Amino acid sequence: MKREILTTKTTNTDWGTNTVKMIKQDFFCDSSKMVRGVCDIAKNETNDCVVRAFKVAFDIPYKTAHSWVKSKFKREDRKGTFTLIHLNSVIGSIKNGKRTSLMGFSPQYKTSYIKGKTLVNPKYKKLTGYTVKSFMEQHPDGRYVIIVKGHALALVDGVLYGNSNEQYEGFRRPIKYVIKVK
Predict the structure, then answer these.
(1) Which long-range contacts (CB under 8 A, 24 or more apart) does 84-87 make?
(2) Strands 16-22 and 6-12, how do they pair?
(3) What are phi and psi of 93, to 5 degrees?
């Protein structure tokens, strides 16, 4: 089933009325708001998008995801996570009965030191990767951690979990690689 993106009007007080595309509410959740009010560790965290993405993908508490990402990705509190460097130690890991696997790399981000298939968007004749939106449309079922430049998102059964701006801007970002959680 293909997911649709809704175009809606929003008023910008500085520039007047303009039309902005956004992901429908049914297909988006602000993962930062979701965890900040529930967990004391999350209240003090910054740059924790990888923790939130795996929290959602594994369907585990934030505290558990926080310690798992700290262990697997060598993440320091309140600092970002370098996912590609530690990807080999994550692939094949099991948490909450769910196993991670590398779905593939975008053709533009293929790397020689980590083996994985190329993620090609079949919508195009030319070797082209996915944007977050095109991946959402073509993968409405399943659990995924999506890595884009400098950021991580989760996609679970067609619902994108990310920062609030992803609903309006992030879905246009090109994907670097995707981790499937099954």
Answers:
(1) 84/111, 84/114, 84/147, 84/176, 84/177, 87/114, 87/177, 87/179
(2) antiparallel
(3) -70, 150
Angle at 74 between CA 136 and CA 118, to 5 degrees: 35
Look up residue 120 and give its two tokens: 């090609």
* pTM metric for this prediction: 0.91
Hey, what are 44's tokens?
């003090």
Q: How many residues does the chain have?
A: 182
Residue entry with tokens 């994550």: 90
What 3-state DSSP class applies to 32? helix
pLDDT in tens, the chain (182 residues): 455 554 344 544 445 566 777 888 889 999 999 998 888 999 999 999 999 999 999 999 999 999 999 999 999 999 999 999 999 999 999 999 999 999 999 998 877 667 789 999 999 999 999 999 999 999 999 999 999 999 999 999 999 999 998 888 888 899 999 999 99
